[in-house]
Amino acid sequence: MYIFVVGGGRIGYSIAEYFSNRGDKVIVVEKNKKICDFLAKSLDVTVYCGDARSIALLEDAEMDKADVVFAVSGSDTVNIRVAEIAKKRFGVPTVVVRLNHSENREKALQTGADHVICLDEFADVFIKTITESEFRIIYDRSGFSIAEIKIPPDSSLVGQSIKVLEELEVKPIAVFRETVYFSPTENIVIEADDILLVTGSQQAINKLKEHIFGAV
């Protein structure tokens, strides 16, 4: 395969290294001279040093022969423009675009890019490794849910009466504090690390989750 990589940073380097080790022909376009020199010394690839938005440079690098273009520089603007050139001028079969900001996804898709990867969306994945471990749906059917929630120390619910949950349109079923079970009577005050069993509509449960953990 003929692999064309725009951007020689960590992502571009890893892509170029993988395909060159696999035996594919790899072209890398990078603007930074020091990075270009490093790539040329480190990998079995052909390096073009310059602005990837230059039609002349891309013609010299024979982008028209590419099977895949990876537009993975650190600039959303550059990557979107490269995708547009690759698709509309050179007719590259597969174009993959890296974006820093998901708000630019639509612009990238309008170029005809085949795959768009937004790095800021990965932050949500890391956040959810925490919040999802503190929140789980036990039962969910016909719009009715039962959820188990562990209250984080910084939650605004800490120190409030269990009755506050009614204001969020959910009903507490039980409170577990360490190894002790409490019936959710009105004199129960929510503490950090309490595990609550609550029931309500899917909408209400999601509203409670957002109230506790924020919108993730």
Would you mind describing this structure in some detail?
The chain is of the alpha/beta class and 216 residues long. Helix content is 36%, strand content 28%. It is built from eight helices and eleven strands. It has helices at residues 10-22, 33-42, 55-60, 76-89, 105-110, 120-131, 164-167, 202-213, and strands at residues 2-6, 25-30, 46-49, 68-71, 94-99, 115-118, 135-141, 144-150, 171-177, 180-182, 195-201. The strands form two sheets. A six-stranded parallel β-sheet has the order 3-2-1-4-5-6, sandwiched between helices. A five-stranded antiparallel β-sheet has the order 7-8-11-9-10. It starts with a strand and ends with a helix.
Indicate the topology.
Layout: E1 2-6, H1 10-22, E2 25-30, H2 33-42, E3 46-49, H3 55-60, E4 68-71, H4 76-89, E5 94-99, H5 105-110, E6 115-118, H6 120-131, E7 135-141, E8 144-150, H7 164-167, E9 171-177, E10 180-182, E11 195-201, H8 202-213
Parallel strand pairs: 1-2, 1-4, 2-3, 4-5, 5-6
Antiparallel strand pairs: 7-8, 8-11, 9-10, 9-11
